[in-house]
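We modelled the chain as a single entity of 57 amino acids. Its sequence is:
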Amino acid sequence: MLLYPSSSKASTHQYCQYFVIVTVQPPRRDFTGTSIAVHEGKELQLCVEIVDTTCLS
């Protein structure tokens, strides 16, 4: 699954990958400070948006 841009810095690439893994798994604490209470499907989509924005910025 290509959830992050292929051309990225090592740190950014790893950060995005970490973001995806954390969101896919049942999050114990939300790192953004907001409670995530959605199904895995929507939760994954939300993660993709966050990762995409984080990588580009």
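As a brief sanity check on the tokenised model: The chain has a mean pLDDT of 51. Residues 10-26+35-56 form one domain.
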